[in-house]
Amino acid sequence: MADTKRPESAVERIRQRVQEKAERRAAARVAGQRAGDTPRTGATSATVVATERREAARPAPEVPSESVMPGVHAEKPTDIPARGWLQIVKRSWAEHNADQMPIIGAGVAFFAFLAVFPALIATISIYGLVASPEQVAAQIESLSAQLPEDAQSLLQTQLTNITENSGGALTLSLIISILAALWSAAGGTGNLISAVNIAYDEVETRSFLKRKALALGLTLGAILFVLITFGLIAVVPVVLEALPLGIFGTVLAQVVRWALLLGVVAGSLAVLYRLAPDRDAPKMRWVSLGSVVVTVIWAGVSLLFSFYVDNFGSYDKTYGAIAGVIVLMLWLYLTCYLVLLGAEINSETEHQTSTDTTEGDPQPMGRRDAMVADELPDPPAPTKESKQKP
Fold this sequence. Notes:
Layout: H1 10-34, H2 45-57, H3 82-98, H4 101-127, H5 133-143, H6 149-164, H7 172-199, H8 208-242, H9 246-275, H10 285-311, H11 315-319, H12 323-351, H13 371-374
């Protein structure tokens, strides 16, 4: 769109985008140096000149009319009309398949499976400082009650092994084990970051340290999410039983409790979609919609999957002793698949409007450091010829 001579190979396109992103960020650093806002770096004024010349030579993208792309001037997702959402859904599904998300989701699920038990170790070790490991394990078991029985059995066996080796005192060995568990769990989070980058059509240019710090931060956020969920699932019911709410009040409180739980899930996904891609952060309203949609679908799919496995599946007969592993990996795959689908929905929602969707002062298209915010889809709805990426 920007260049008439588009690189033919995917490797060349990625290399060009990495170079453009690096030059744009170097130019921003030099501009900050000139204003005295940031300390000096290795960037030079020549980088600024080269970037400014390339940006000036870049033709302004043509903005279609509302009849061609409904919602093209939308300030927020709710401003997009139904016809615009139809285009978004079609593009999201086409992009989901073109990005090979079913395969990438399987890879993320595999690494997520490897990260589950280190994350449990870290969670039990941290929470065990204020509660007994046995209480933590019991609450995690209640948290996994919606999973199929084979997956529950696998988690309970591992939880028993973990709690037998857990202590309640903050010692040097405990600190080292927590850090090691967090590092291992962050590996799975790092692969999820890569997958979300693909969904947003971004290339990774952040340093190893910055990327690892982000993965560790998101992992700690996931542990915080689990601890909050503990409260909603294990603590709140005890409080409700002690209160004289009556039948109507109890039912209403249970509805509110599960609504809050789903809200926590949606909020956690919104944070992931906002922080994971290597781009200027989008405004929260442009990542919240996909989070809510995925949360509702995920809750329904998890219940249906659990019902199917417990009543119709024959995983025990087919896989024997490893049936629990297979079922847990299948559930993780469904979860990762839906999370990445939500990222595609969010990215194509941003793609639908020419309004700046990124944080900060509004910038013209081409200077927002975000692929889906810098360009408009061409064509607005996928055709047979455009369903595969060049």
